[in-house]
Amino acid sequence: MSNRYEKSEKMLVRAQQVIPLGAQTYSKSITQFPKGISPLFATHAKGAYIYDVDGNQFIDFINAQASITLGYCDTDVNKAVSEQLEKGSIFSLSSEIESQVAEKIIQMVPCAEMVRFGKNGSDATAGAIRLARAYTNRDYVAVCGYHGWQDWYIGSTTKDLGVPNNVKELTLKYHYNDESSLEKLFEEYPNQIAAVILEPMNIEYPHPDFLRNIKQITHKHNAVLIFDEMVTGFRFANGGAQEFFNIIPDIATFGKGVSNGFPLSVIAGKKEIMSLMEEVFFSFTYGGETLSLAASLATLNKLQEKNVIANLINKGEFIIEKITYLINKYHLQDVLSISGHPTWSFLSFKEIEKYNSFMIKTFYMQEMFKQGILVYGTHNITYAHSDEDIEKLIQATEETFRLLKEYILKDNLKDKLECHPLEPLFKVR
Ligand SMILES: Cc1ncc(COP(=O)(O)O)c(C=O)c1O
Predict the structure, then answer these.
(1) pLDDT value at position 312?
(2) Domain residue spans in the chain?
(3) In CATH, what class is 6-60+308-416?
(4) Is 256 one of the annotated active-site residues of the chain?
(5) Which of 7, 28, 104, 256 does the annotation list as catalytic?
(6) Among 5, 209, 288, 299, which residue has the fewest nearby CB atoms (within 10 Å)?
(7) What is the H or E stretch that residue 181 is in?
(8) Cβ-contact 48, 389 below 8 angstroms
(9) Over 80: is that where the pLDDT of 2 sits?
């Protein structure tokens, strides 16, 4: 049998000689794409499609870790970037486009009265935490989701190698949809918690009043409420999850979709707090790099002009409805479920008697990749996905579910796996 991913695998051998793990982003590495069944290296991408080095074409539902919301190489974004490239990507002085994008974000995002830019999402979350610590003159922070690679957050996970214990101790955990777990932290650490940070939503919808209660508890204890809107921003609504749920935080952080795949992140929030950034050191050579800002302005204009989010929601609702139907049709309720917002829905793989969730997920990916769908369980919808692309996703999902059910019943799923299954290394959602 010919190996569909032969060139990818050769390229991995070469990359691993010079690049630890052979990848720059954990979620693009072989820890997430099992060798043997996965494309590993891309050559290019356009619209809803990505092409690997073996010449395989996939409809992409990962979309560069949800940083693409309009589609790859969006014509309007690329035009804006090309025009900016002629003027210069960076200067020895600040430039007007910084204010233009800041003003646009202030117009769109409810909590935004002032704005600073970073490059990766982790810049923004780390900056927001430092700002909250400075504002409150306290050290502890309370977390319940994923917030990037920096010490202050990653030290609270199992991927904490290299993070000093003193830093780890300052990050406390509470649970999503469980206000009492946050209350408890404030009781245990009175007047010591600077910030409460959370993704306003990922897999689960917030219970009624959860976000309102979190805000109330946070403010009762004079701490700063930070919404990490890295994924939900410019995806759930033009003003992010804070607009969608109508709960306005003190500070919010954005990245990914703010610039349709160009390296830009954002800290936005109340003037009273943001002004302190004149003193809090948040400064880097590529802050204000203009190509990403031009991409952002074009992206944000397009979101407003084309009613992009309504389009994403329509397609995403269709996917949730169809996949729910398929889970029931193939009696897979004990094996799988689908949840999340239509623009970012999740398949959750469950533990069953003979097979663990990672085995089931690996089989799912293997069969979806074979059918030309790049997906690892989330459906990150873009404006570029056509109705036909969505239909192909549903067809491939049906075939995968049909096989999954058959092999679970025959008890031969393990034999049908063409690679080592994913390992339960690091799960943040
Ligand atoms: C909610 C959230 N916060 C922070 C980050 C970190 O962003 P970055 O990887 O761009 O540093 C991510 C990235 O996936 C994220 O999803």
Answers:
(1) 98
(2) 6-60+308-416, 75-306
(3) alpha beta
(4) yes
(5) 256
(6) 209
(7) helix 179-188
(8) yes
(9) no
